[in-house]
Amino acid sequence: MIDTKWVQCTSRSRLPQAVFLLLFLPALHAQPFWVRRHFANGPAPRYGATAAFDLARGKLVLYGGADGGPGFSDTWEWDGSNWTLRTPSHEPSPRALHCMVYDTRRARMVVFGGSFASETWEYDGLDWSQRTPATPPPTRAAAAMAYDEARGVSVLFGGLWLGVVMGDTWEWDGTNWVAANYPSAPPARSHHSMVFDAARTRIMMRGGSPVSGNPDDTWIWDGISWSTLPGQVPTTSFRFEPMVYDRDRGTVLHLSPGSIAAESITRIWRANGWDSHGAPATGAALPYRDSYSSAYDPVRRRAWLFGGRTDHSTYGDLWEWDGTAASNILPHGPGCAGPAGTHARNGPSTPGRQAGFVSLPGPYPATAFVFGLGDTTWGPISLPVPLDGVGMPGCSLNLAPESWSLVTPTSGVAAYMINATTTQGLSPFTAYCQALCFSPGANTFGAVVSDSVRVLVGRY
C-alpha cells in the first residue's frame, strides 16, 4: 500500500503568501501506534509498579505497585497472549515507586527500594530472594535504575525519601552496592527515567523532578562519569514516564500517553536527538495517565505499557506498540525571505499525518522540489551551506541534493507527490525536502528557498 505526501508551493497573486504544505496520508493497512490488548484475568489496576523483560524466558515480568493502601506484592508474567500470576515461595513486601531491571548476565530481576520498603531483592523466574549487601544505598522511592550490559552492573540514581531529593549514584554487581559519586553528577532528582543504550554502550537518564536546573535535561553515564547532551530537550515535561530501549532498531523510546496533554506521544531517540510521533490517524490514543509501567519485548518486537493513574482513576489496561505507521514529517531547517518579507512556519499539525508550513510569499513562476537522503555533507561541502555567494543572501541549502523535480504552477499551486511505503519490516530511513521557488527580482539569482523538512519513512 502506498502513502502519499503532498508538497505544495502556492503562487496565486491574490494570496498574500505562499504555502509549502506536506500532507502525509497513512497507508490503509498500517496499524495504529497503540493497540489495547484485552485479557480475561490479569493484574489489578495499579500505578507505580515496575516491568522488565526476562530475555531468558521470553516473558514480561510485572511486580508491585499500589492503588491506595500499602501496595501490592504480587508477581505477574505476560507471554504475549495471557497473564499468569506467579506463586513463589518467597516474595518482597508490598511496595510502589521502586526500581526493577533485568540482569542479563545472571538472568534475574533486580529490585531495589520503593515507597514502603528499601531492600534489595532478586527474582530468577522461580522464586524471589532477598539480598543482604554490606553497603546498601539509603532508603528511597521514585529513583531510577538501568542495567549496564557492557559492565554487568545495575546503576541506580536519585530518588526521594521523607522530603529529601537525592543525587547519588550506586552500582550493584550482584553481591554488593558501591557508591559511584563524582563532581559532574546531575542535579538531585526523583521520578526520572534511565535506560541502557546498547548501541552506544551507555546509560541515558532523562527528566524527573530536580532540586534545581532543567527538568527535561538528558544525561549520559559511561561507567566513569556523567555528562550532558545539550540541546536535546523535548518540548514537554518528562517525569513519571519511563523510557525503554528498542533492541531491534537501536533506539530509545519514550512512551508518553500524555501526562501533560491528553494525547499519546512516542518520542524516539536516535543518534542526534528526539523525534516526536503523535496519535495515529487510525486507532485510539492512550488515555491520559502517569506512573505507568513499560518495557520492550525483543522477542515480539514491541513495547508494552501497563496501568498508571490520573487524579481520578487508576488503570489496569495493557497496550502494545510495534512501531508500525510511525512515518512522520518534521521541521528541519529555515528558508529565506521572499518578495513580501520573511517566511513564517505554520505547523506541524497532527504529527504523523500532516505538517503545514507557511513560507516564501509569492508569486512564483516555477518551483523546483529538491530531495536528498543526507543533511550533513554534500560531497566536500558541509551542510547547511549559505547561498550568499550565488546571489541568494540569507538563504541556505539544508540537504544534499540527489533528485529534483521542476513544477509549473497550475491554478496558482505547484504540487509534487512523494510516494513512500510503510510496509511492516521495512528498514527505516530519513529523507529531506526543500523547495526552490524561482522569484525574479527577489535577489541577484532570482530565487528563494523554503524551510526544509525531514521525512521519516518506514517502521520506527
Could you describe the 3D structure shown?
With about 450 residues, the chain is mainly beta. It has two domains: about 1-30 and about 330-455, no CATH class; about 35-320, Kelch-type beta propeller (Neuraminidase). The protein is built from no helices and 40 strands. It has strands at about 1-10, 20-25, 35, 50-55, 60-65, 75-80, 85, 100-105, 110, 120-125, 130, 145-150, 155-160, 165-170, 175-180, 190, 195, 200-205, 210, 220, 225-230, 245, 250-255, 265-270, 275, 295, 300-310, 315-320, 330-335, 355-360, 365-370, 375-380, 380, 385, 395, 405, 415-420, 430-440, 445-450, 450-455. The protein starts with a strand and ends with a strand.
Write the layout of secondary structure elements.
Blueprint: E1 2-10, E2 19-25, E3 35-37, E4 50-54, E5 59-63, E6 75-78, E7 83-86, E8 99-103, E9 108-112, E10 120-123, E11 128-131, E12 144-148, E13 153-161, E14 164-172, E15 177-179, E16 189-190, E17 193-197, E18 202-206, E19 209-210, E20 218-221, E21 226-228, E22 243-246, E23 251-256, E24 265-270, E25 273-277, E26 293-297, E27 302-309, E28 314-321, E29 328-333, E30 354-358, E31 366-372, E32 377-378, E33 381-382, E34 385-386, E35 396-397, E36 403-407, E37 413-421, E38 429-438, E39 447-449, E40 452-457
Antiparallel strand pairs: 1-2, 1-37, 2-30, 3-28, 4-5, 5-6, 6-7, 8-9, 9-10, 10-11, 12-13, 13-14, 14-15, 16-19, 17-18, 18-20, 20-21, 22-23, 23-24, 24-25, 26-27, 27-28, 29-40, 31-36, 31-38, 32-33, 34-35, 38-39, 38-40
